[in-house]
Amino acid sequence: MQDAKATASSAAPAQNDAPRISFVSLGCPKALVDSERILTRLRAEGYELSRTHAGADVVVVNTCGFLDSAKAESLEAIGAALKENGKVVVTGCMGAEPEAITERFPNVLAITKPQDYESVLEAVHAAAAPGHDPFLDLVPEQGVKLTPRHYAYLKISEGCDNSCSFCIIPQLRGPLVSRPAGDVLREAEKLVSAGVEELLVISQDTSAYGRDLRYAESAYQDRSVRARFLDLARELGSLGVWVRLHYVYPYPHVDEVIELMAEGNVLPYLDIPFQHAAPSVLKAMKRPANDEKTLDRIRAWRRACPDLTLRSTFIVGFPGETEEDFAYLLDWLEEAEIDRAGAFQYEAVNGARANDLPLAVVPPEVKAARWKRFMERQQKVSARLARKKIGRRLQVIIDEPGGGANTAPAKGRSKADAPGIDGAVYVSSRRPLRAGDIVTVKIDRADAYDLHGAAV
User: pTM for the complete prediction?
Assistant: First the structure.
């Protein structure tokens, strides 16, 4: 899971007497896309976006409810909105357990479930009626986006069919529901036409895309396209922008997409949440448990695509995890050479089947110590791999301008870096570099997570 917080603000001029909303988006990129869809609908109805809660007619808080720490942040955001405004609509993952909200905040206007966009709109309408001017085009064709102009998240499905024992996403967001391929590609096309240079493909389980549709065909332009992971990746790659794949479950057919990466069709970047390496822990998690086979696949992927970057997340301190299991994980990290890795200390999530496992609970102080050791080991792995890039020329997309008369370097990302979760490339340049520029950079220095170089 990737935590993010976004607050909507308006770039459009204010309209007289138009109702105003303030919006807080918490949680992962999938939730951010939900927020963008709600905001797009509201802007189309004439609502203005307020930079402050106090200046709004109503506040919408899109919550995260996956971990207790995320729930605490969501409740804090709801409380702040009530204090500053008083009229609050709550949506998102915490909406699946409304009693946890009403116990603390009985005065919220409405609580809706995840992805229930219509109920959010109805609640906002009740608090502040829309004031749409039919002669005013309020929304760009690509919709309202909470990301910088040069990259965007592209959600291809909702829900998940997996049964990982630590996870409650299927309860919160339901089973897998894939979008028709034609719909996904039309949205991607609009984003590219609006100036997006990088598409970040997301879902709860990206590699399962289309399975619920039985890989059905749908119309796109003058032809039919299949709702299949490999086919969709190939089609997106043909749009001429960077395509980055996130949240990929390690099904066997994932091997096929490595060929697209080797061909340059999509970025050589694979975000796969392995979660652990010790077979006994993986079995308890209800995850693929053949660690040797996974290592063999990683080696094969790198033979086929030497520039492949692997990002993953892991859980330490899962019930029953022994010191031997944890040591096994550390050794596996070294052998697998995971380029980017994050770790979470296990939290007992209400409703997760892991809570009922007849396994020893790992004490909090042990979990914390293991997390520290994990991050220290991974930092060494990342630093070693980063040093191998010194002297190489890499393509870099600029996120923050710099260079030219500005003595500060520009800040960007290579093909190995996703926004918000990976490292950065700091670029010195004689000419000014703008956000969205893609430049070639010669790397002359490397830190554990970041690279430094000059535009060539």
Answer: 0.79
